[in-house]
Design brief:
Length: about 270
């Protein structure tokens, strides 16, 4: 199977036109006509992940996040003066590694809509972007909760399901009946969650003043960390690569180490 065949198959599953206009999806670097020797799937297209893919004999690094949104001024070895994308592209070209990324086009897929809620035992009724049209692809998820659930209980479930220490805005004993999800950055979608009558939005990251404002207006916020909220999308990409024709034994996962940490009272003691 050639790399261009994989790219085409994944675009059939996650259409290019579903990506944001600013996004960079598909092939960033590599040889489209090369035969695939193996695929490593990761959240980020970093130099370290390029080298790890090469170490295990893969020649494709398949990621959710693109290696860059705006191309760097130069492709060169790692340096404090350049963004990390510069070294990632340089190293990929040096090692013969192709990088394919499926970002906001994957985010709008029905698979992504189901993925995050499923980790908490919930099922989406629609996307957050199109709450009144369940048949249309869109960003995020909107779910109804069956039975009594408090915000504190939901946050505890998030901690286990996403292997993180969430930051929570809202009263712990608040009753939750409708939950919104959005992987990555919340952006303006807090307004969409409010308009959809959600009680809480679970997302990767959002600014202090945004969370404060949403919380005071009745929308609680659970922040997982950008990476923790999108790490589950790696599973979608792995399944998609295998469905496209890649041999399952040649598709490997690179699990991202959490790039940030929190200090607990126990650690301070």
């Amino acid at each position: 199977m050639r790399i261009r065949d994989l790219e085409r198959s994944l675009f059939e599953r996650f259409p290019r036109e579903d990506a944001e206009s600013w996004d960079h999806v598909g092939l960033s670097v590599g040889m489209p006509d090369a035969e695939m020797a193996g695929i490593c799937v990761a959240l980020d297209a970093t130099e370290a992940n390029v080298r790890e893919a090469a170490r295990v004999g893969a020649n494709v690094l398949l990621t959710h996040h693109p290696v860059y949104i705006k191309a760097p001024d130069a492709f060169a070895p790692a340096s404090p003066e350049r963004p990390v994308s510069s070294a990632a592209i340089f190293t990929a070209a040096q090692l013969g590694m192709s990088i394919l990324s499926y970002h906001t086009n994957l985010d709008r897929s029905l698979e992504a809509r189901k993925q995050l809620p499923s980790l908490l035992g919930l099922s989406p009724i629609s996307s957050l972007e199109h709450p009144d049209d369940a048949s249309t692809r869109g960003l995020g998820s909107l779910c109804e909760v069956s039975g009594a659930l408090e915000l504190g209980e939901l946050a505890q479930s998030c901690a286990g399901a996403f292997s993180t220490a969430p930051r929570v805005w809202g009263a712990p004993r608040r009753s939750v009946e409708r939950v919104a999800f959005l992987g990555g950055s919340l952006g303006s979608f807090g307004e969409d969650a409010l308009a959809a009558s959600a009680d809480v939005v679970i997302t990767g990251e959002a600014g202090y003043h945004v969370c404060q404002d949403l919380s005071l207006r009745g929308l609680s916020v659970i922040l997982l960390g950008h990476d923790r909220s999108e790490e589950p999308f790696i599973d979608i990409l792995m399944d998609a690569a295998i469905d496209a024709g890649a041999t399952p034994s040649t598709v490997r996962r690179i699990s991202g180490a959490q790039q940030w940490w929190t200090v607990t009272d126990k650690e301070l003691a």
